[in-house]
């Protein structure tokens, strides 16, 4: 019903879940504004910056058109166009497959590495906004966000996620989170949103 829309202030103000959704929307807008400002400063598009940052911090096997399309919920042609521009600007190199000449992974060039050093601070204002919040509140907020991200992935809203909850190494031991790869119990603050060792567990 229209009256129960999360965007209807009258309903929103009486429903905490709607307030949270509205708050996440505001934060999403702030993220986009900060990214756009950095993109304009460097003469790149937002997605080009995001691709460069992703390649800098993730496995080479994930730095290809197909995976990047899923990561950013964009079409392969859109990602290919962005990569083409980055290649023309000398910011990336392409490593073609020995078995398939159409397939390639992407690495940063020296120019790309320097650019990432200038770009990946764009989200610092968001991080700085959390500095006055006490540790217990931050831990509670993180726990809520990590569960929400996993829920959205399980419902097909987020195509890719690399959080502990969806990993084959994750399990519950006596109602406690546990990593079977690290052989250790996981505290709330140990749960990862983007784990390098993540391997998707089989869905039943």
TrEMBL record:
<keyword id="KW-0804">Transcription</keyword>
<dbReference type="Pfam" id="PF12802">
    <property type="entry name" value="MarR_2"/>
</dbReference>
<keyword id="KW-0238">DNA-binding</keyword>
<feature type="domain" description="HTH marR-type">
    <location>
        <begin position="17"/>
        <end position="147"/>
    </location>
</feature>
<dbReference type="InterPro" id="IPR036390">
    <property type="entry name" value="WH_DNA-bd_sf"/>
</dbReference>
<dbReference type="InterPro" id="IPR036388">
    <property type="entry name" value="WH-like_DNA-bd_sf"/>
</dbReference>
<dbReference type="InterPro" id="IPR000835">
    <property type="entry name" value="HTH_MarR-typ"/>
</dbReference>
<protein>
    <submittedName>
        <fullName>MarR family winged helix-turn-helix transcriptional regulator</fullName>
    </submittedName>
</protein>
<keyword id="KW-0805">Transcription regulation</keyword>
């Amino acid at each position: 019903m229209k009256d129960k829309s999360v965007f209807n202030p009258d309903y929103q103000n009486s429903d905490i879940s709607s307030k949270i959704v509205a708050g996440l929307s505001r934060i999403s807008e702030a993220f986009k504004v900060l990214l756009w400002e950095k993109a304009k400063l460097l003469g790149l598009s937002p997605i080009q910056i995001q691709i460069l940052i992703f390649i800098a911090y993730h496995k080479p096997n994930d730095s290809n058109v197909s995976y990047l399309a899923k990561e950013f919920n964009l079409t392969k042609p859109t990602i290919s166009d962005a990569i083409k521009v980055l290649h023309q600007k000398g910011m990336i190199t392409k490593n073609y497959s020995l078995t398939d000449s159409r397939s390639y992974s992407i690495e940063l060039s020296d120019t790309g590495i320097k650019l990432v050093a200038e770009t990946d601070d764009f989200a610092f204002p968001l991080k700085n906004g959390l500095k006055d919040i006490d540790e217990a509140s931050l831990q509670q907020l993180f726990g809520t966000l990590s569960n929400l991200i996993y829920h959205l992935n399980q419902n097909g809203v987020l195509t890719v996620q690399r959080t502990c909850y969806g990993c084959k190494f994750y399990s519950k031991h006596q109602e406690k989170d546990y990593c079977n790869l690290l052989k250790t119990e996981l505290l709330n603050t140990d749960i990862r949103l983007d784990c390098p060792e993540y391997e998707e567990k089989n869905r039943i």
